[in-house]
Amino acid sequence: MKTVTDQLGNAFTFDTSPKRIISLVPSLTELLYEMGLENEIIGITKFCVHPFHFKTTKVSVGGTKQVHYEKIEALQPDIIICNKEENTLEMIEELRKYCPNVFVTNIISIQDCLDMISTFGVIFNKRTNAQNIIDKIKYAHDDFQEFMSSRESQKVAYFIWATPYMVAGKDTFINTLLKLNKFENIYEGREERYPEVIIQKMRIQGDPDIVFLPSEPFPFKDEHAFELGRHTHHARAVFVDGEMFSWYGSRLVKSFDYFKRLHLRMDLD
Q1: What is the per-residue pLDDT for 192?
Q2: Domain residues of the chain, as ranges?
Q3: Which residues contact 123 (CB under 8 A, 6 or more apart)?
Q4: Strand pairing category for 183-185 and 154-161
Q5: Identical fold between 2-140 and 151-268
Q6: How many CA atoms lie within 13 A of 173 on its CB side?
Q7: In this model, does residue 269 exceed pLDDT 90?
Q8: How many CA atoms lie within 13 A of 140 on its CB side?
């Protein structure tokens, strides 16, 4: 018997390791796969694109905000993995009617991520696999900090949506990774985690050196870069891989290498 606590403080007791997992968080589907739990994962969302073959081998139960409860009930899961940011409170409460073990993650810092991986290692009896991933993340993190040690800070705005324009603000995992890159988020002082912004005010609200346009969740195009650029003095619009800035879990191992390449690329621009 093992007792663990999720990142909202809910306690769970398992007599045996769960054998039927539904993951409603794309980045955590990837993590669970890389922990060696492919056979235990039975349900995913339509946004769980890694690993690619899960699209044809696992049951899609819907999206991250809306799911098909009848599909979830039919799958008879032992545990459902959720995230405070990705999934709604209403969804989480409804899911508990079909499965008592709805484990909710809440990732803002690197340590939150490492703690989550360690807890998954306990829950699923994959402690060695979990520790291997943790060690890789720590090594990549330390190596990246050394890489960044002599680099200068730059002011940035990281957009996540258009119509209306929205950005990543404080208390977000994206903002944590921006800080590690010495990117000073001009919207960190806003109260909302993902505030809607008036782009015509960008100059007086921080006037960034760089405007980041990620590949997800919104498909930004050149016209967005042009429009945003008109409302700064000399900011560069840089298209980036959104997964590298917003996916936690095992993706972090790849993220730090990606950030190195991003800095070197921007040095040459």
Answers
A1: 95
A2: 2-140, 151-268
A3: 2, 4, 12, 14, 17, 18, 79, 103
A4: parallel
A5: yes
A6: 25
A7: no
A8: 19
CA distance 10 to 3: 10
pLDDT in tens, 83-139: 999 999 999 999 999 999 999 999 999 999 999 999 999 999 999 999 999 999 999
What element of type H or E holds 2?
strand 2-5
> Topology of domain 2-140, per CATH?
Rossmann fold (3.40.50)
**Token pair for residue 236?**
């560069």
What's the gap between Cα 158 and its chain centre? 14
β pairing state of 2-5 and 11-14:
antiparallel
Find out whether 229 and 235 touch, Cβ atoms under 8 Å.
Answer: yes
Pull the structure tokens for residue 188.
Answer: 């960190």
State the Cα–Cα distance between residues 60 and 83, nearest whole angstrom: 17
Per-residue pLDDT, 267: 92
In sequence order, which residues have a C-beta less than 8 Å from that of residue 139 and are 6 or more positions away?
A: none
Q: Does the domain made of 151-268 have the CATH classification 3.30.1060.10? A: no
Rounded to two decimals, the pTM is: 0.96
Instruction: Supply the DSSP symbol for 196.
Output: B
| Cα-Cα-Cα-Cα dihedral sign, residues 70, 71, 74, 76 | negative
Burial of 238 per CB tally in 10 Å (0-12, 13-18, 19+)? middle
Indicate the Cα dihedral angle 81, 84, 87, 92, nearest 10°. 70
Q: What value does the mean pLDDT of the chain take? A: 97
